[in-house]
Amino acid sequence: MNLGPHADFIVAAYAVTVFVIALLIAWVVLDHATLRRVLGDLEDRGVTRRSRRKEGA
Amino acid sequence: MAVIDLANPTRFLNLVTRVLPWLATATAIAFAFGLVMAMNAPDDYQQGATVKIMFLHVPSAWLGMMGWGVMTVAALGTLVWRHPLADVAGKAAAPIGAAFTFICLITGSLWGRPTWGTYWVWDARLTSVLVLFLLYLGMLALYWTAEYPGRSSRAAAILALVGAVNIPIIKFSVEWWNTLHQPASIIRTGGSAIDPSILWPLLIMALAFTLLFFTLHLAAMRNEILRRRVRTMQMMQAQHLAGAET
Known about the structure:
The complex is a heterodimer of chains A (57) and B (246). With 57 residues, chain A is mainly alpha-helical. Chain A has helices at 7-44, 50-56.
């Protein structure tokens, strides 16, 4: 594949796009893992939501 | 499951857990097809190989605007219907829409230098997209500086509705003013002006970007619901500890 005389611009555009999308995916995945861990810690300490207590009653 | 059932965050989370793997797989497949087609698309007779930047620039521009469209519908849901997930949907869409608008601006700039001879001009299309990006940054600042998740919801909804005025300005800027940016060549009366050998890769890439947007949006909504649960449980724990001390 020949990208011609402006290959640098094409490669830079794809690199920036991949980088930004990778950041977005990492943010969503890491945020989810962190929130799950904190929720698990709270539940281990016996903290439950009111709706969960109603379900258990 | 009726649509109204999705107003319940727990049911919504269950649905997201089931749908997300399928949506992520569909996104990966669409990107695989789209990228292969984009890399094998012929060069443009005027722009040469730089036309390959279009396969990133145009879908990200569409999704930058669609992100604000999602926030506008969510704002109506917050202010008019008081839907419990509306603010969650709006807040989750803001960083994703901002990221796609950023990609649009950067790829547009990198495309402009070899084709126009400049990275940037203050014409109506470029400036209105920059304004959209600044509106996104304002929205993110509003959400991220609020002490409580619900406190920023009304202000964010009003900003989303005010900012929605910019979307038709972006769309029609190339018709209302003389701009360096080319006029609409895909969605226009009389059909697309682009050759099918370039149009099809563009449409598949647009599908892939759209699927990515909804995958990330659903995942971010799930995170925001969990964040609000964590906040509620931490408040309950603090109240419990305060009660035990007195």
